[in-house]
Amino acid sequence: MGKSDIIASLILGGIIGLFLAFILQGFGFSLFSPWALIPALPILATVGVYIGELIGKKIPVILQFVKFGMVGFANTAVDFGILNLLMATTGIYSGKNIFLLNSISFVVAVTHSYFWNKFWTFKVKKTEATKEFLQFLIVSIVGLLINGAIVYMITTWIKPMFGMTEISWANAGKIAATVISLVWNFIGYKFIVFKKQNDQSGNIQKI
Q1: pTM
Q2: CA distances from 185 to 35, 37, 57, 132, 137 (A)
Q3: What are the backbone angles phi and psi of residue 167, rounded to the nearest 5°?
Q4: Rounded to 10 degrees, what is the CA torsion of 153, 156, 161, 166?
Q5: pLDDT, tens digit, 9 for 90 and up, residues 122-164
C-alpha cells in the first residue's frame, strides 16, 4: 500500500468522521459519542483501502471501486454536513431559500468529489483541463438543479410525515435527492467528462 493511498485514506476517513459526527450530534444520537468516529474512521478507511488493494491484485477494478466508494461517502458527508450546518445557522428548513442552502452544500461537495476522483481514484493526469472542467461544471449544474428541485419539492410541497421534525424531513428529502442526482452525475461524469480516459484505459471507471 503506497504512502499516497495511506495519506488519502486517513484524510478521507477524517472528513467522513467529522461531518458524520456533526450530523449525528445534531440528531441527538446517544448510542455512543459521535465524536469517537473522528479518530476511528481514518483507521477503518485505511484498512478498507488495504483490503481493496489485496483483492485488486486479482481483480484490478476492485481497488478503484473501493476508492470511489470512499470518496462517495466523504462527498455525501460533506454535502449533508454543510447543509445541516447552514440550516441550523439560518433556521431555514423549507421554501425557496432551502434551494440556495442546498446549492451551496452541493457545489462544495461536487468540487470536493471532482478533485479526489480525478487525482486519486482514477489518476487522470493528461487531459484538456479547461474543457474537462467545463464539462464537469455543466454536468454538475444539471445535477444541482435536479438535487435542489427535489429537496425544494419535498420540503415545501409535502408536510413532514411519520412524526419527523422539519430538519429530519429536510434530510429525508436530501437523501432522496442525492440518490436521484447521483444517477445523473454518474452517467454524466463517466460518459461525458472522463469518457476519453475511459476509452483509453478500457477499465470500468465510476465517479
Answers
A1: 0.74
A2: 31, 28, 29, 14, 11
A3: -70, -35
A4: 120
A5: 777 666 667 777 888 888 889 889 989 999 999 999 999 988 8
